Amino acid sequence: MRASSYIATAASNFCRRRCNNYFWHRCTNSSSSSNSNLLCSIYFFSNTANNHDGDGRRLGGRSSNDSEMGNKNTKLDDAPIVSTAHVQHRAKANIPYNHNHNGRLYNSNYDSRTHHQHRHTRTNQNRNVKSSSSSFDDYNKLRELESVITSNHSTSSTTTTTSSPHSSNFNKRLSSTPPRDWSIPPQYPRRSNFNTNNSTAGGGNITQRIYASRSIAQLIDVVYLEKDENNNRNNHHNQVNDRSNNVESVDAISPHVLIKLWEKLALLVKDSSTAPEIDQQLLQKEGELNHRLATILNHSINALPQCHPGQVRSIAFAMGTIVKAIGSYSTTTGHHRQSGSRGGGEGNHYGKNVDQIMILHNQLVKSNSAILFWNTMQHQVLQLSIDNFRPKMLVSIAWSLATMSETLRKKDPNRNSHHQSSNGNTNPTLNVTPFFQALQTTFHKRRTEFSSKHLGNLAWSTMTCRVNDNSNSSILHDFANEFISRRNNDSSWNDDDKGSGLRDDDEDGIDPMTLCQWASSYAKAGHKDEDLFRTIASVAIPMLMEQKFDMRYLANLAYAFALAELPSSSSSSSSPKMMNDGDSVGSSASASYLSALFDTIAAASMEKLPTFTTQNFANIVWAYAKVEHPHPALFDGVAKESIPRLRDFSSQELAMLAWAFSKFHSDQHPETNLSLSPSSLSSEIIFDRIAEEVSRRGLKSFTLQGVAMLAHSFATVGHTTNTTIWDAIDEIITTRQRELGNLECSHIARSYAMIGRRSDDIFRGIESIVLSKVHQFKPSGLSSLAWAYATLGYDVPDLYVAISKQSLQCLDEFNRVDEVMLVLALSRIDLPLPDIRDQIFARSTLHLSEYMSLDLFNMLIFYVRAGYKSDHWMEAMANEIIHRSPSTFPPKMAVSIAHSYASVGCRNPALLNYLLRICQNRLEELEPKEAASLAWSFASLEFFDRKFFCALADSCEGRWHEFDAASLATMAWAYATAREDRPELFEGIMDASIVRVDDFSAQGVSMLLWACSTAGYSNQRLFHSFEEAAEMVLHECDSQSLANIAWAYTVAGFDSGTLFGPKFIAIVAESFDAFNHQGLCQLHQWSIWRKNIGSDAALPPHIEKRCYDEFRTHRIHRSKLQNEIISELASMGIRFDEESCTKSGFSLDVLVDVNGTKIALEVDGPHHFVGRKLTGNSMLKHRQIAAVDGISVVSLPYWELNSLKTSDEKQKYLRLKLGLNQA
C-alpha cells in the first residue's frame, strides 16, 4: 500500500503540473483514497497525452513547452467536470482507451478532445511542438498499474475520506447544502461530423478571422470562406477528414467556435455604429445573408445537446446580448427605440448596418428557429441537471431567457411566454416556466451558494419573464425572505468583519447596483413586500451617507421605491385644484423609513447634481413627486442644473420633469406652507423654459403618454399663457385620436377641464373611445372622465350612464379619491343617477375615517349639492371632522363646511366652535366672498358669537370696495339677522352698494334692502338709488323677494312713485299663490302704508283680504317678562286687556286704559332690537298702530325690565311709563 500511495502521490504531482489547479481540486475533492488520486491522475494524463498526434503536434490542450499556468484566461465556469468515480467507472466497466489511425487516444463513447477543446484554442497550428516521449512512457507505466489499484480499491471494505487543503473554500461553500453529484459527468455524445481541427483550420485563423471581422456580413461570411491555403499543408490531414481543409459545411463547426462566433456577433451588434460595411456585394444579396444566418442558427440548435454547462451558458449569454441589442431598435425602421428624440432630432444609431440588424431581428427574434433555440437551450439545461450549474451560470441563463421573453413581449406577444395565440397559430411559443421552477428547486437546496447579487439578478429575470402568477410570486417571495434573513442573521452577516455585509466565500454583492436591482425588480413585479423594501432602505441609508451611490443609482433607487407604491406612501393623487392635506405623509411609523430614505437620497444628491444625466434628473424628481415627498432644495437644484440642458432631454424626460414640478407647484397647494414647494421663481422659470423647448421641437417626437403628461402638468400649474403649446396639443390629439389609450383619454380630458378649455372635436372623439370600451377603464379613469365632462358642461347622457353603470360594477375597486371625484361629477349634472349615489353614500358612512381631509370635505360638498339630508350622516361627518387636527382644514375649507351645514339647516355647536377656532385668527386671509359666506352660515344657524362677528367686521373695514354686489348683500343680511348694531359696517355696505347698484340681482336687491330696514338703517339715499334698480328686476323676483322689497320701502317710509305702480301689482297678483305666511304679512303692512299715505296703488280686494286674514292668524307667545308685567298691573288695580287685536290686525301685548286713554304696552325682548335700537319690524309696528289705530305704544325693553328686582321697583317703573305719577 505504501508503494501504491507513493506512486499515486507522484502521479498526482505530475498531473497537477499538467492541468489547472482549480480543475484538479474539483476532481479530487471527493476522492476517498490515494488509489482514487492515482486513477484520477491516469485519467487526466490520458486526456492530456491523447491530444498529441504521432508527429508530436498538439491538437488540443497545452503542449509540453507551454507554461504550467499558461492559459490564465480560462473561465472556471467552463472547466470540465471530472472525478475519480468517473475513472473508476471506466476501469470497472473495462472501457478501453483506443488508438485511432493517427495514433490518438479516444473513447468511442466519449470524446475528450471535443470536451476540452474550447479551453485550449491554439493561435498557430503550424508551430512544431517537440514530442514528449517521456510523457507517453510515464503514461504507459501508470496505465499498467491501473488494474491492480482498481482491484485493491474495489475490495476495500472501508475507505478514508481525504481532502486537499486547496479545496477548503469549495467545501465551505457546500457545507450547508447537499454536495453536488460530480461523480458522473454529463455525457456529451461524440459528433463525428464536428471538425475538431476547425479551431486551427485555414492557417489556424478561423478564431482570429472571427475576432477580426468588422461587420456582421463579414463575420457570417467567415465561416463559409474556403480555406484554399490548407491544400499546401501536410497530406495526412487530408486523410483524416476532407472538411479539415475548409469549413464551408457549417455542421463542421464545433461548439467552441460557435461560442466565439456569437460572442463576436454580440460585440458587433452592440457597437455597430463604428463598423463600416466591408462586403457590399454580400449585403446586396440579402437573401444569401439571411440563409447563412439561419443555417448557423439551426446548427447551434443541433449543437446544444453536445454542450456542457459552461458552453450552454456562454451560448445563451451571447445570444441574449444580441437579442437585447436588437430589441433596442425598431422592427420597422431600424431606429433606436427612444421615448422621444433628444433635441427634437431623429438619428440612426446604426448608420450603414441597419439592413444587417433587420436580418438579425428576423432570424434571431421573429423566426421559429429562434424560439426553438431557446426552448432547446432550456431543455439542455434541465437535461444536464440544473444542480450541475454554478449560480453565476444560472444567472446568465436566466438573464438571457428574460431578455428574449421581454423582446418577444414587445414585438410579438403571441410568441411570448404564457401568451398563447388565440387565432389558431401553431407557431412555437417560448415557455420559460420549467426553467424557473427548476431554479427555485435548486435554490432551496443550495441557497448559501447564491450571493445577494445573484438573487437580485434572478429576481429581475423572474419579474421580466412574468412567470405564471403563482410561481412568480412564490419565487420572488423565497428570494425576498432569503435577503431579509441574511440581513437579520448575525451569523450570516458580520458587517464589522466583512464590511457591507459581504460573506467570506463570495462577494455577496451588497452594492448600490444590487440594491437598485432588488428594489426595481420587486417594484415592477408589483410585489409590495414592505419588509423587503424596509430592509433595502436600512442597507441603503448608511451607504448613502458614505456617498457610495453615484448619480445613476441615486436616481434609480428613488425611482424604484416610488414605483413600488407602498401602502405607506401616497399613491393616489388629489382631486383637481385641490391639495393633499398631508394626512398620510409621515403619519405612521411605516412611512418614517421612506421619509428617512428620501431625505438621505436628496442630501447625497445635492453635491452630485452637476454630474446627473437628463434621465437621472427626470427619474429622481418623478420619484419624489410620485411619493409626494417635498424637498425644495433638491427641486431648486434640479431646476438650476437642468434648465441650461433642456435641449438634451428626450421628449419623455421633458414630460416627466414637467409633471414632477407640477405636483409641488405653489398654486397647487395654496393651503400649505410654501416652504414645502420649490421656490416660486425656479418653478415659474422651469415651466417657461420647458414651454419654450416644447414649442421649439414640437410634439411629433412625443408619445401620446408624454403629451398627456405635458397637458396635465401645464394645466395643474395654470400655465395657459403659451397658447402655442395648447394649440399644438389640440392638433396632435385630434390627428392621433384613434391611438389614444385609456390613460391618455382620462388624463387629457381632466387636463382640459382643469383649465376650462373646451374642444368639441377632442371630447367627441374621447367619448366615442370610452363608449366602445368602457369596461376596460379603471376606477380612476372613470371618475376623471365623469368629472371632466361635467366640469366643462358637456351634455352627454349616454356617457354618464355608461360610466355610472360600469362604476357600480367595480365600486369595490374605487379608492376614496376616485369615489369623491365621481360624486363631484354627479353633483354637476342634471341626470338622475340615484343608484350610484346611494351606493357611494352608503359605503362612505362606514369608511369616513379612511378619507383624507380633502376627500372628506369634497364628499360633504357633494352630499349637500345632491340634496341629500340625513341627520345621522351629517352628525357622523361632523364627528369625524372634529376629531382631526384643525391644521388639516384651512380657513377656506372651514368656510365651505360651515356653508354646507347651514344649507341643510344642520346645527352642530361643537362643529361650529371647531370651525370658529380655525378661522378666528386668520380672517384677513379670507376673500370677500368667503367672509360673507362665513357670516351667512353662522347667522343662518343662529350661532351668534359676538366676538367673532366683531372681529369679522373689523377685518372687512376699509375693504368694502373689494366686495361684489352679492357679498355686500350677504354681509348686510348676516349682521341684520345676528342683531349686530354696527353703524360703520352698515354705512360702509350702503355706500359701496350705491356705487355697485347696477350689479345687483333681484335677490341681492331684496336681501340688501331688507337687511338695512331690519337693522334700522333706512337711509333715504340708499332707497332712492335702488328705486330704479328694484323696478328693473321685479320680473326676476320670486314671491319672497317681492315681499321683502315692498316691506323694506314700507319700513323706510320712502314713497316711490314708479316702483309700486301697476306693474308691481300685476306681478304680485300673478305669483300670489306662491307667497308664504311671512310674505303675506309683509304685503299687508305694505298695503296699510299705501292706504295711509293715500296712494292709488292697491292690492286687489281678494288678495288684500287674504293678506289681512293671514296677518291676524299668528301664534301668541307669552314671555316670562310679559307675565310679570301683567301680574304687577293686576296688583296695581289697573284695567288692561291681554293680547288684544287692533283694527289694523296687530296684536298688542297689553292694552291699558289710563284715564280714558288707551295705551299699548309692548314687552320687547332681545329679538326686537339690533343692539339697543328697535328693529325695523318693531318700529313699523309701533308706527302703524299709532297712525292707523290711534293707539299710543310704549316699549318696555328687556334690559330695563331685567334690572328690576322687587315688585315695588317694577310698579314704580310701570307708573313712570304710563305717566301715572304726574296724575
Structure description:
The chain is an all-alpha fold. The chain has 57 helices and eight strands. The chain has a four-stranded mixed beta sheet with strand order 3-4-5-8, with helices on both faces. Strand 1 and strand 2 form a beta hairpin. Helix 26 (551-564) packs antiparallel against helix 27 (589-606). The protein is elongated. The N terminus is likely disordered. Residues 53-201, 409-431 are annotated as: Disordered. InterPro entries: FAST_kinase, RAP, RESC6_dom. This is RAP domain-containing protein.
Describe the SSE topology:
Elements: H1 2-17, H2 21-28, H3 34-49, H4 84-92, E1 98-99, E2 105-106, H5 112-116, H6 133-144, H7 146-155, H8 168-173, H9 201-204, H10 206-212, H11 216-222, H12 235-240, H13 255-270, H14 280-284, H15 286-303, H16 309-327, H17 354-366, H18 368-383, H19 391-411, H20 433-446, H21 452-465, H22 469-488, H23 495-498, H24 512-524, H25 530-545, H26 551-564, H27 589-606, H28 614-626, H29 632-642, H30 651-663, H31 680-697, H32 704-716, H33 723-735, H34 742-754, H35 760-772, H36 779-791, H37 797-809, H38 816-826, H39 834-846, H40 853-865, H41 871-882, H42 891-903, H43 909-919, H44 928-940, H45 946-956, H46 965-977, H47 983-995, H48 1002-1014, H49 1020-1032, H50 1039-1052, H51 1062-1070, H52 1077-1092, H53 1101-1112, H54 1120-1132, E3 1136-1141, E4 1147-1154, E5 1157-1164, E6 1169-1170, E7 1173-1174, H55 1176-1189, E8 1192-1197, H56 1198-1202, H57 1207-1218
Parallel strand pairs: 5-8
Antiparallel strand pairs: 1-2, 3-4, 4-5, 6-7
Helix pairs in contact: 1-3, 3-4, 3-6, 3-7, 10-13, 13-16, 15-17, 15-18, 16-17, 16-19, 17-18, 19-21, 21-22, 21-24, 22-25, 24-25, 24-26, 25-27, 26-27, 26-28, 28-30, 30-31, 30-32, 32-34, 34-35, 34-36, 36-37, 36-38, 38-40, 40-42, 42-43, 42-44, 44-46, 46-47, 46-48, 48-49, 48-50, 50-52, 50-55, 52-53, ...
